[in-house]
Amino acid sequence: MHTFKDKNGTEWNVAVNVTTVKRVRESLSIDLLDREAVWKDIARDPVALVNTLFVLCETEAKSRGITDEDFGAAMGGDAIENATDALLEEIVDFSPSRERARGKKALAKIRDWDNRMQTKMDELQEGPEVAAKLESLMTELESEMKTRIGSVGNSPELSASSPGG
Q1: Which residue, among 34, 63, 164, 7, has the nearest Cα to 52 in the 3D structure?
Q2: pLDDT in tens, the chain (165 residues)
Q3: d(CA 62, CA 64)
Q4: Same domain? 6 vs 87
Q5: If we measure between CA atoms, which residue out of 88, 87, 78, 90 comes closest to residue 110?
Q6: What DSSP character marks residue 8?
Q7: What range does the domain containing 39 cover?
Q8: What is the 3-state secondary structure (H, E, C) of 74-99?
Q9: What is the DSSP letter of 44?
């Protein structure tokens, strides 16, 4: 069983078994055993993810007096990322051993790809091209503001209505 913490620090247990797979299918029409559906419908959609997690954690939530709205309100940021990891790892662990190894390799590749993409995005944001583009945009904005302020000050309506004018 894998766990994650919501934004409030509450720890939740994620258990994927035949009963919970059935409950998610019946409640949300999502098949946790269909890898493509899990990736398309859950891992990339935080609302579908949180709905799925609530179904998986519903018994625990009810015992704590937490509604699905409360549960959803406590999910965001790192909680979403950690919950996604917990769910994907739990699904892989539920798989038979011959599929589990492939699932773990696939998760490792996804994480490696994600880390490389984040590094590349950081490099692009910190590179000289971005700084030059921002500087150019600031210069354009400053010029446009001066033009607009100048045209307001030279407006005949403004001059005619000004005191002493």
Answers
A1: 34
A2: 999 999 999 999 999 999 999 999 999 999 999 888 787 778 789 999 999 999 999 999 999 999 999 999 999 999 999 999 999 999 999 988 888 888 888 878 877 887 888 888 888 777 778 778 888 888 888 888 888 787 665 655 555 555 555
A3: 5
A4: yes
A5: 88
A6: T
A7: 2-94
A8: CCCCHHHHHHHHHHHHHHHHHCCHHH
A9: T
Q: How far is CA 16 from CA 3, 21, 122, 137, in A?
A: 12, 6, 35, 50
Both tokens assigned to 10:
């509450």
CB of 77 closer than 8 Å to CB of 65: no
- Residue type at 124 in one-letter notation: L
CB 107 within 8 A of CB 92: yes
The count of other CB atoms within 10 Å of the CB of residue 93 is: 14
User: Same structural domain for residues 73 and 147?
Assistant: no
Q: How far apart are CA 125 and CA 120, in angstroms?
A: 9
- Helix boundaries (H) for the chain: 18-28, 35-37, 46-64, 68-73, 78-94, 97-126, 128-153, 156-161
Determine, yes or no, domain membership for 21. yes
Could you give the CA distance from residue 28 to residue 51 in angstroms, rounded to a whole number?
8
Q: Is 39 helix (H, G, I), strand (E, B) or coil?
A: helix
